[in-house]
Amino acid sequence: MGYRVAIAGATGAVGYQLLEGLHETSFPVDDIAALASRKSQGRKVSFGDDELDVQVLDEFDFSGWDIALFSPGGAVSKVHAPRAASAGCVVIDNSSTFRLDSDVPLVVPEVNREALAGFSARNIVSNPNCSTIQMVVALKPLQDAQPIRRIVVSTYQSVSGAGRKGMDELWGQTRGVYQLEDAEPAEFTKEIAFNVVPHIDVFMDDGSTKEEWKMVNETRKILDADIAVTATCVRVPVFVGHAEAVNVEFDGPMDEEEAYELLSAAPGVEVVDRRQDGGYVTPKEAAGDDTVFVSRIRRDPTVEHGLNLWVVSDNLRKGAATNAVQIARELADSWL
């Protein structure tokens, strides 16, 4: 049995990965539609060996389509995801628009696939924030063994998290530095080439950015509402791959050896932790992979039950497209 699948935002960086992910995993597709804004009409995108004509999202009729994978941005999802859902098409949305709605499941299949049972309330499932996804995949096996009390996370997020324009800006500014050209920031608030910027998304009243707010609230919705979470989210001059320094405080004992064993056995996780030069994973090595890599597992001696972790993953794949395709697969398997 195959399904009719639509990709909204098919010409973007995540849209490309969604199409690739569906093809790579041999998702049972009978028909597929590539959707984008009117300015992309006439373009073509690849799906395996086939080329798809890009159709206009505003005009697309979702009636008779089974699944829509959305990654066109929050403002567009807010309008068209409910329209698709009301036509009977299940929407898996990559924006932050519906993530914290109580009747919309926020799902990472390795962590809380059981939450998918509630998808029919609105016919919408939300993909969490890219940084949230990789962190909860790493923390879930530890949380199951010993409840987590508090998380302190600092992120090092690549420019692809801001889409193609963010990647273009890093490329253009880097080239400009060597050509002695002035670099005017457009997608980021300060020059990103050879720099780090502690500002992602808009500022909130308490001084946090919305990206930090997302990590806090999404983590608590997915893992446990009683966990205290604080985050600092930073943009770094890396094209693909997010890294996180995660400090975890548990309710009871959790030593390095137990954490290593639990993480090594966890789905979607690979532990690379050798206490020697190069014995850890960086974003460059994670790019193009669907795995969440964990390195630098060590005790935090400043609290009674604390550990430090280094968590790295490809934000376009597991942090966005791969997770959405996994959700689609879970839904498809439940319909068989």
Question: How would you characterize the overall build of this protein?
Answer:
There is one protein chain. α1 crosses α9 (317-335). α3 links the parallel β6 (90-93) and β7. The chain is globular. Helix content is 31%, strand content 24%. It has 336 residues and is of the alpha/beta class.
Strand content: 15-25%
The chain-level structural class is alpha/beta
**Oligomeric form of this entry?**
single chain
- What coarse outline follows from CA principal-axis ratios? globular
Low-confidence stretches: none
Main sheet?
7 strands, mixed
Helix-strand pattern, N to C? EHEEEEHEHEHEHHEEHEHEEH
The termini sit apart by 8 Å
Mean pLDDT: 96
Report the strand count: 13
Helix-residue proportion: 25-40%
Q: Any idea what the radius of gyration is?
A: 20 Å
Number of continuous helical runs: 9
Order of strands, widest sheet: 3-4-2-1-5-6-7
TL;DR?
The chain is α/β, with parallel strands linked by helices and 336 residues long. It is 31% helix and 24% strand. The protein contains nine helices and 13 strands.
Show the helix and strand layout.
Blueprint: E1 3-8, H1 13-24, E2 29-36, E3 44-47, E4 50-56, E5 67-70, H2 74-86, E6 90-93, H3 109-112, E7 124-126, H4 130-145, E8 148-157, H5 164-178, H6 210-222, E9 228-235, E10 242-250, H7 256-264, E11 269-271, H8 283-286, E12 292-299, E13 306-313, H9 317-335
Parallel strand pairs: 1-2, 1-5, 2-4, 5-6, 6-7, 8-9, 11-12
Antiparallel strand pairs: 3-4, 8-10, 10-13, 12-13
Helix pairs in contact: 1-9, 4-6, 4-9
